Amino acid sequence: xxxxxxxxxxxxxxxxxxxxxxxxxxxxxxxxxxxxxxxxxxxxxxxxxxxxxxxxxxxxxxxxxxxxxxxxxxxxxxxxxxxxxxxxxxxxxxxxxxxxxxxxxxxxxxxxxxxxxxxxxxxxxxxxxxxxxxxxxxxxxxxxxxxxxxxxxxxxxxxxxxxxxxxxxxxxxxxxxxxxxxxxxxxxxxxxxxxxxxxxxxxxxxxxxxxxxxxxxxxxxxxxxxxxxxxxxxx
Length: 235
Hints:
Largest sheet: 5 strands, mixed
CATH superfamily of the largest domain: SCP2 sterol-binding domain
Strand content: 15-25%
Number of strands: 9
Structural class: alpha+beta
Oligomer: single chain
CATH architecture of the largest domain: 2-Layer Sandwich
CATH class of the largest domain: Alpha Beta
Number of helices: 9
Number of domains: 2
Order of helices and strands: HHHHEEHHHEEEEEHEHE
Distance between the termini: 44 Å
């Protein structure tokens, strides 16, 4: 396989050109996207990035390792399970993913009906996240998303936190008290937070606990801003 010449090899010293040398190959930023919320096994990445073959995934992960963007780590305990995770520098690519997302939603050919992995939906929510002025104290919502692109997919759980300062959504590592719980497919939840479809029109989205907290979450992380919300940088 013939490798692509780097922009640097053409005496191009632009930092943006160098960034493309690092992450500009097909699939590379998509793999990074799937690691932004935490480590994953090789099989997890291949499962979530539909269409990538194992040989290409192996090469892209090796490239990310060689550039210092990602690393492979063996989990403690029995089983000898290896995971891939971003380095501290690699996590800086979330800002790039956010900027690309915010820019791309203005495209006249944006495939709004296409599917998304659970992490990708959550990253879209994080890209649009803003504070909730009416939250006098922090509100928490457990969000359980099932990948609608795959039959038999297991749900992935996240916790959203909202306050007057910021709103964010992170992968849940252990159970914690929340004001509400939401269970949905990625297709339905995307229709809500990106497509603007009201919860009442999505009967397969199950809500328990505080409906007010869930509506605050939607208002704080949807593509279309709710009145009175303020865009903020995540702390």
